[in-house]
Q: What sequence folds into this?
């Protein structure tokens, strides 16, 4: 015995050396073989899978890009084939019976358009009435209330801007004998009125807007019972404006765009805003 341990169980330096040699001979070649042969298989397969995935994604992206280009080309072609959109500033008058919309004609009467739009914005036509109705001729409004109060304009009178002929649906500026005395009142034409165009006795009146909605309503309102006064048919039960406002950049429906292709005095250059 050697310190209580049988001789047969002693671990001598020589025995340790033999065990290490066996470890080298048996285990190390196994590890080397595993590293050289087994481990590279999975990375190769992973790389192939990644390459295939990348190819699929690239193909999809290229196809999507081509589709986007084709769709953009189609949209562009459709847009080219569409008629140009037309927008107009309009003055809208709401009454109990419905709505009347007048499209401004600033290319022919810019000062009048600005004057009436500014008056509307300032609220001059709040609770105003259509006080005059002439069947087949016209319907007139001004800043007059049911009580008879007339609100004055805060602006100067507007000089004559004659050009557009007086046809059914036009809106002209009422004035006195002075051609430059237009101010607050306007007249919706319910029939052609060539006598209001420029002639030997008159420099004409200014048509500054055109009715694009509610012309039949205007005709009906003009036919209401009235009392005749010198030169005027004053409505007995005048329609009251519930709301008057300016709607800017109103998209003109194709069905009424032809109304704005107005007839102009031959001496005036014809224009059109689209």
A:
């Amino acid at each position: 015995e050697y310190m209580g341990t049988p001789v047969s169980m002693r671990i001598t330096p020589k025995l340790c050396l033999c065990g290490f040699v066996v470890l080298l001979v048996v285990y190390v070649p196994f590890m080397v073989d595993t590293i050289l042969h087994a481990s590279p298989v999975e990375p190769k397969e992973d790389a192939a899978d990644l390459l295939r995935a990348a190819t699929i994604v690239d193909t999809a992206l290229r196809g999507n890009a081509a589709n986007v280009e084709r769709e953009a080309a189609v949209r562009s072609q459709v847009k080219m084939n569409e008629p140009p959109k037309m927008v107009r500033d309009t003055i809208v008058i709401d009454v109990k019976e419905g709505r009347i919309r007048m499209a401004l004609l600033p290319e022919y009467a810019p000062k009048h358009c600005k004057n009436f739009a500014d008056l509307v914005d300032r609220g001059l036509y709040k609770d105003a009435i259509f006080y005059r109705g002439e069947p087949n001729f016209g319907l007139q409004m001004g800043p007059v209330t049911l009580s008879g109060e007339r609100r004055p304009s805060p602006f100067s009178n507007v000089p004559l801007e004659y050009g557009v002929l007086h046809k059914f649906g036009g809106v002209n500026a009422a004035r006195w004998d002075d051609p430059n005395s237009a101010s607050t009142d306007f007249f919706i034409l319910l029939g052609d009125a060539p006598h209001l165009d420029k002639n030997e006795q008159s420099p004409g009146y200014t048509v500054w807007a055109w009715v694009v909605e509610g012309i039949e309503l205007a005709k009906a309102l003009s036919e209401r019972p009235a009392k005749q006064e010198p030169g005027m048919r004053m409505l007995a039960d005048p329609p009251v404006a519930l709301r008057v406002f300016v709607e800017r950049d109103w998209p003109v429906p194709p069905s009424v765009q032809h109304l704005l292709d107005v007839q102009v005095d031959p001496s005036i250059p014809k224009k059109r805003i689209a």
Summary: Confidence is low (pLDDT under 50) at residues 1-9.
